[in-house]
């Protein structure tokens, strides 16, 4: 500091010598620089700021990343370009919306490292899903040589420079007050689509924080309605899209259809960057996807048909009573996953019902399901594992199916660990570490697999299929991502002559249509109404007289019902 204070530069070496809004920056800077000389009462905070200002003025302009000389790896070109654009053009406030597996974490890490190297960030807060706290901390430390600290107690907020925490922990007392009291040079939020609702604690908490720079990471910045985009951008950069009424007047034709797609794209490009696999020279190992038909055992088939009959009668009853069909949709999806998962839902219905006739029918279904002795999907998995490679991940949507798989694998002497959203951070890290080094099979639920990187594994079995193709792609993205060195093998287990089989067949056609539309306008959002898609699937299943009619119903679902056409028509 003393050296800085005692240096006198000639005019040509004073990069801060200019006028801004009537302020002589050179004079003011020199005054700051000499603050404190010969004065005991000097403001040393101003002196410190003067030194930092000098360092910033003399640093190279944002036409290159200084961080590249200080990291432990070689980033890909699209990651370097994204980070450079964030610091150079977007002034440190951006939505990083790359497709799953293209390295949003790397891009955010580069931005953080760049600001640290330039002295523009001293205090940074990284908010992520609980399952990713250790992963983020590890990557920042090992790849970027950033001294990142996982949040441990309420004092971490004041004593550490770069802190990684789950958003759920941060927004709760006593942590929330500590965080609100701090000034944050940079805030990074992973899975930022969870901030889309301004009425949630997530949004309100973030909106109260004091900060200079902010990064949002999400592959799906919009999931249902255009107003979600306004919410996210307003939180990131207030005023960029005007207030809600102004945004609606200028850009919204209907909740899911923009009025001026080109104008919206141009406006959003000032705050959002999205890289796609198809955009450039990025090459990932090949993925081989196989759909494997599974024939139900006779007992399973009889149980499936009995549950279908029950669902049809309950659907009709629900329509007449105007009650929610969500529990019925869940049961329909569970029976396609496993009889065991469906049994648990039937037992819950049994406990809640007050109708004697309904109770007797449920009791008969439960007895029928409990009597099943062989499970076709489980037997298929066991046969596959005989020839599968060393590491295999099995995805299922349901905790009950996960528990049943774990029980069966253990019974057959196959080492396996579960992974699900309800685990605490330490247990998730332990399960992942065990899978990486010792255990052969990881059985994960949808929520458990969110954001976790498993590129050391290249073989995936989808025990059941989500009706949302975006979630299916996110599953695959856990292994088919940057860092994967081997071709990836993905097997979808599909039960024959069930709703699942018909959905899979039509879904493949729909995915191609989704890609055709979203691919043209991916710069803005991935706004596919899969909540409505699932409802339409179930209604089609319940009202169709046979399989052919059901398939025709599925094929008749119009793409315009499911996708907000953000780029207009060709």
From TrEMBL:
Q: What is this protein called?
A: Helicase conserved C-terminal domain-containing protein
Tell whether Nucleotide-binding is among the UniProt keywords.
Answer: yes
What GO annotations for molecular function exist for this entry? ATP binding; helicase activity; hydrolase activity
Span of domain Helicase C-terminal: 377-529
InterPro entries from the UniProt entry: DEXDc_RapA, Helicase_ATP-bd, Helicase_C-like, P-loop_NTPase, SNF2-like_sf, SNF2/RAD54-like_C, SNF2_N
Kindly give the CDD domains that the UniProt entry links to this protein.
DEXDc_RapA (cd18011), SF2_C_SNF (cd18793)
In its UniProt entry, the species of origin is given as Alicyclobacillus vulcanalis
Record keywords, A-Z: ATP-binding, Helicase, Hydrolase, Nucleotide-binding
């Amino acid at each position: 500091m003393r050296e800085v204070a005692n240096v006198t530069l000639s005019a040509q070496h004073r990069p801060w010598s200019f006028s801004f809004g009537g302020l002589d920056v050179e004079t003011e800077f020199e005054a700051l620089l000499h603050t404190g000389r010969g004065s005991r009462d000097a403001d040393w905070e101003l002196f410190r700021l003067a030194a930092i200002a000098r360092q910033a003025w003399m640093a190279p302009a944002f036409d290159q990343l200084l961080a590249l000389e200080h990291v432990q790896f070689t980033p890909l070109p699209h990651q370097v370009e994204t980070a450079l654009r964030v610091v150079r053009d977007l002034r440190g406030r951006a939505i990083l919306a790359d497709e799953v597996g293209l390295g949003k974490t790397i891009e955010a890490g580069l931005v953080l490292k760049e600001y640290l190297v330039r002295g523009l960030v001293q205090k940074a807060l990284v908010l992520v899903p609980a399952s990713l706290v250790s992963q983020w901390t590890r990557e920042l430390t090992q790849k970027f040589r950033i001294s990142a600290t996982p949040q441990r107690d309420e004092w971490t907020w004041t004593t550490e420079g770069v802190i990684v925490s789950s958003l759920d922990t941060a927004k709760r007392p006593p942590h929330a007050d500590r965080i609100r009291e701090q000034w944050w040079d940079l805030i990074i939020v992973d899975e930022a689509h969870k901030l889309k609702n301004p009425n949630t604690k997530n949004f309100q908490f973030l909106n109260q924080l004091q900060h200079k720079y902010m990064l949002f990471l999400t592959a799906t910045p919009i999931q249902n309605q255009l107003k979600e985009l306004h919410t996210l951008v307003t939180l990131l950069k207030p005023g960029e899209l005007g207030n809600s009424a102004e945004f609606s007047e200028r850009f919204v034709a209907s909740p899911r259809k923009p009025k001026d797609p080109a104008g919206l794209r141009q406006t959003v490009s000032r705050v959002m960057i999205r890289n796609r696999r198809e955009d450039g020279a990025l090459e990932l190992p090949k993925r081989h996807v196989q759909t494997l038909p599974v024939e139900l055992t006779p007992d399973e088939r009889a149980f499936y048909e009995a549950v279908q009959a029950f669902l049809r009668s309950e659907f009709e009853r629900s329509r007449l009573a105007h009650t929610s069909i969500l529990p019925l949709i869940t049961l329909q999806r569970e029976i396609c996953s496993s009889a065991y998962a469906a049994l648990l839902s039937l037992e819950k219905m049994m406990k809640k019902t007050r109708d004697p006739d309904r109770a007797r029918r449920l009791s008969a279904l439960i007895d029928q399901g409990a009597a099943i002795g062989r499970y076709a999907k489980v037997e298929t998995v066991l046969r596959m594992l005989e020839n599968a490679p060393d590491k295999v991940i099995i995805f299922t949507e349901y905790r009950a199916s996960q528990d049943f798989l774990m029980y069966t694998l253990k019974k057959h002497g196959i080492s396996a660990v579960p992974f699900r959203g309800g685990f605490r951070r330490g247990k998730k890290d332990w399960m992942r570490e065990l899978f990486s080094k010792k255990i052969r099979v990881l059985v994960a639920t949808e929520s458990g697999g969110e954001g976790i990187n498993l590129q050391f594994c290249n073989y995936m079995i989808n025990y059941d299929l989500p009706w949302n193709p975006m979630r299916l792609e996110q599953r695959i993205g856990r292994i088919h991502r940057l860092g994967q060195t081997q071709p990836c093998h993905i097997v979808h287990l599909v039960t024959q002559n069930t709703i699942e089989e018909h959905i899979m067949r039509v879904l493949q056609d729909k995915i191609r249509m989704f890609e055709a539309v979203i691919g043209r306008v991916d710069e803005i959002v991935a706004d596919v109404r899969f909540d409505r898609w699932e409802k339409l699937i179930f209604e089609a299943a319940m009202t169709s007289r046979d399989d052919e009619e059901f398939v025709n119903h599925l094929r008749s679902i119009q793409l315009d019902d499911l996708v907000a056409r953000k780029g207009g028509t060709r």
